[in-house]
Amino acid sequence: MRGIRPHYVARSVYDVDYDSLLQDGVEAIVYDLENTLCRWRVWELDPPVWALLRRLEAQGVGLAVLTNASLPRSHTLTQTLAERGIVVFGSARKPLPGGFRAVLARLRVPPHRAAMVGDQLLTDVLGGRWAGMVTVLVDPLSAEESAFTKLNRQIERLLGRPSPSRFLFRSG
To answer: Closest Cα partner for 118 from 80, 107, 103?
Structure first.
């Protein structure tokens, strides 16, 4: 069970205590895309998300997006993020380690200096923990999602998905 317990829990990407993460030595943040930064299959970031990313960039935080979605490199969002120095790794097959290794290598940061922020225990948290990253679980932005993700949500409930009303401290 410990492998799927996030280090931190927050309601949304806006509620993450980024100052604590940075004080704990986190140098880079990897975000899930769908239902974390944007709604499922929308692939557009709202102005507050852009403001958050700009604030973190200004603090010198390395940023990347790691998603299981097959977002083409030619997509406007992928290109806009790349222009800002934020690389998108699509079709990542989370929780498998390949995508996590690739994003950490691109960010040039050891796993314990990176945080994975996402909305799913069985992809984002499990994969991040396996990779040795700090993990942050956020609530999904929308109930709209794929059938596979809906199945994951049922399994999460059975496993006792942590509530964002509790802030989990780093467990080591």
So the answer is: 103
Query: Is the pTM for the entire model greater than 0.85?
Result: yes
Bridge partner residues of 64 (DSSP): 30, 87
Nearest CA to 10 out of 141, 155, 132 is that of: 141
CATH number assigned to the domain covering 2-159: 3.40.50.1000
Asked if the bond preceding 95 is cis, omega within 30° of 0, the reply is yes
Q: Residue 99 is encoded by which pair of tokens?
A: 């995508």
Among 24, 90, 32, 34, smallest CA distance to 61 is for 24
Task: Report residue 140 as tokens.
Answer: 């999904």
pLDDT digits (tens, 9 = 90+) for 123-139: 999 999 999 999 999 99
Contact 164, 9 (CB under 8 A): yes
Given a contact cutoff of 8 angstroms between Cβ atoms, the answer to whether 170 and 6 are in contact is no
113: DSSP letter: G
Q: Quick check: 89 and 81 in contact, CB under 8 A? A: no
Residue ranges per structural domain of the chain: 2-159
